[in-house]
Structure prediction request, 130 residues.
Amino acid sequence: MQQGGPLPQPWNHPRTGDEQRPSLNGWDVAVSAAAIVVAVAVASISAVAAFFWLLFLDYCPPESCSAENAWIAVCVALAVAALVTVMGGAVTIARIARRTLAWPVACGTLLLCAGACAIGFAGYVSATGI
Prediction:
């Protein structure tokens, strides 16, 4: 054994710096949470709307309409919107936990989710000729 005890290791040091961590930014958490909730709402409402668009696509003349392309456009857009929302929510939560600004990530998530849903709607309109 060494004089004075074992050498200090990173795993047995007491945590330092907890006292120096900045406090949570209330407005940042509120704006981030609101943006993520709205992104989830946009994706959910778009999924329900897309389900009904595809469900009631009764008459689709082959000359001007492709039900398969409409299905692909909607499904890809909703998958991208869901992926963006989940990843953006995870990054936002991580940034809040680290006490760094999270609202730009949350607002970017909302914009990307809404953009993916809008592109899916445009793809549906293009495929069906409505």
